[in-house]
Amino acid sequence: MNERDCHPEAFAYWHEGAFLSRRVFAGLASPYSDLHRARTVIVPVPYDGTSEWRSGSRHGPQAIIDASQYLELYDIEMDREISEVGICTLPEVEPLLNSPQDMIDRVYQVTKSLIQKEKFVVLLGGEHSLSLGAVRAFGEAFPKLSVLQLDAHADLRDEYLGTRYSQACVMRRISELCPISQVGVRSLSLEEKQFLTQNKLIPFYMSDLASSATYIDRILDSLSEDVYVTIDVDVLDPSIMSAVGTPEPDGMSWRQLLDIVESVASRKRVVGFDLMEFCPAEGPGSCAFLLAKMAYKLIGSAVLREGR
Asked: What's the CA gap between 129 and 220, in Å, rounded?
């Protein structure tokens, strides 16, 4: 890639070898897709270097952005076109395959540069390990940050397959940086259960959500004022989201997930979010469109409520 291949305004964030080709979320035209005007920036990261079962999340960002071309820009619930906040799509961040830690550092640098420009960052993965880079950058900007994790898995192993920076370790590493609140968990290892017990951490298991009418209030109470939301899309039930690397039965519905995130956005300051672990080859095209619509609605929930 060279300078003429990169959108002129995105070039300010381009470093030699850091980005691949550029695609535009929701097919937005100027001025709504211009970097200098947009409040929100989409950062696609096509990387799945530590995936161990069904790989392919490296194709997730492109599939979501491609499906977003068919979104209706008007949102019924918000009664406006969310795109008016401005949504710029950066070129894909080029993967580094020499080590997961180097790739996480690359995501950290890209995210940090956007935070310094006061952008609302939306990371599209790619595997979940990448979230660590984004959280590192947001933690520096927001010292009292907490992280809301929506996920079928705890991701709290200290090491997995020879690395401490696997997708299976991401929340263990994030918990070393800031408080975490885990929601929708329905699968974990004995090692992870012991870590939870030793550190007096209590996830909101999927079974808790099904049996309690007050779980959203308790989730809100567990979070600080500034919140980063990380979503492993396998938190959703396989009946609507089969296109994941590690599917688990008995997951969230579309409405449950939206209700949680919209409630958090209405009471807290959501500083950024990500959608991770989408493997488009493992499911129908409707999965990509579901995630495109989810990203669009979550941008609306977070950005349009910033001035509440």
From this structure: 25
